[in-house]
């Protein structure tokens, strides 16, 4: 027994038009309901059971003479429903966008969310203040590499090969001739090589030494070294410059004293102390009851250093000094541990 034809085909051509009409009416009813455009597309154009899809499959059973008319009617239904679905999808997308914009609407009249405003690090504040004081005296800032040669870091500063300062226990060596600079004094040598006197410079920057981290030591810290070279500069000029700087940085009531010392690149050399800023020189735990606090080392430039940069030591004299920025920051802000400056603890940093 052969395969039977679909219902509407078994009852004549008029039934095809009725089937198409019923599908179209059902679609219009569905499109006015709660079904989404995607649900409608699945119902009418699904690959297996879509109502229009089934109609198109059943066209295979239509007699050849009737196929052109039947095919045209089903195709017109297909195009009509697809056009309707496209319109529904566009409207749905537009409505979804409008709802999203409404939900995400920003009231521009409301105050914004204020973020906390950052500020300079305490070491940066101290460095800037020191630079400003020396700039007011006619000094300018010079910079140099943090990876240095042994010539600039030691030899040109009159530090011989077997000097204790060159020991590998104190210095980070990269090779036999390269190292992380242990002070910023090499910048002074580099500047003197490229410029003739008169010269007044300060050289701030990071330096590195093999120190174990504790309350007063760090393997990486910051220094500012200064140099003045001219004809007829004397120890009196040297003392006057440093007294002016220290009183400007701490207070005009600060007392300053110079104690004889030794540095390889200065002669004579001095340790510079200030009256204790915590007890006004009376004596306390910070100054170890002495009333004085050591703050920097300095001295007149050794003539041997001038020979490395082709300065005539018979014509020029100069003085040099060096200080630790952390040391000055600890005194200025009454901080008892150098590590606080490098721990990035906002509870500490927000106090400045």
Outline the fold blueprint:
Blueprint: H1 7-10, H2 14-31, H3 37-45, H4 51-58, H5 67-103, H6 122-135, E1 140-141, E2 147-149, H7 150-153, E3 178-180, H8 185-194, E4 199-208, E5 220-231, H9 235-249, E6 256-263, E7 266-275, E8 292-301, H10 303-308, E9 316-324, H11 325-333, H12 346-349
Helix pairs in contact: 2-5, 3-5, 6-11
Give your account of this protein's structure.
By secondary structure, the protein is of the alpha+beta class. The chain has a 7-stranded mixed beta sheet, sandwiched between helices. A two-stranded antiparallel ribbon has the order 2-3. 39% of the residues lie in helices and 19% in strands. It contains 12 helices and 9 strands. Strand 6 (256-263) and strand 7 (266-275) form a beta hairpin. It has helices at residues 7-10, 14-31, 37-45, 51-58, 67-103, 122-135, 150-153, 185-194, 235-249, 303-308, 325-333, 346-349; strands spanning 140-141, 147-149, 178-180, 199-208, 220-231, 256-263, 266-275, 292-301, 316-324.
Largest sheet geometry: 7 strands, mixed
User: Could you name the ranges where pLDDT drops below 50 across 5 or more consecutive residues?
Assistant: 1-14
Judging by the overall fold, what is the CATH architecture of the largest domain? 2-Layer Sandwich
Domains, number: 2
**Secondary-structure-derived class:** alpha+beta
- Helix percent band: 25-40%
Number of helices: 12
The share of residues in extended strands comes to 15-25%
